[in-house]
Design a protein that fits this description.
The protein has 3 helices and no strands. It is 66% helix and 0% strand.
């Protein structure tokens, strides 16, 4: 179970949509997450990698298997 606080303006829009369609607000929240979660993950993963760069390997080092050594 997850509880999320959302702005009143967003909740009013969800209420209106739920009443119009007869579906629960949670249905639309799940739909929004399903559609946009990949994009959110990609964005925050990219930001993390920019802030925490990993070791980079040259092609020669990869071909020599140096990336496999601990």
């Amino acid at each position: 179970m997850l509880a999320v606080r959302i702005p009143d303006s967003v909740e009013k829009r969800l209420d209106k949509l739920a009443k119009l369609t007869g579906r629960p607000k949670s249905f639309y929240v799940r739909q929004a997450l399903a559609v946009h979660l990949d994009e959110i993950e990609d964005t925050y993963t990219a930001l993390y990698r920019l802030e925490n760069p990993a070791r980079r390997w040259t092609l020669d080092e990869l071909e020599q298997g140096l990336d496999q050594q601990g």
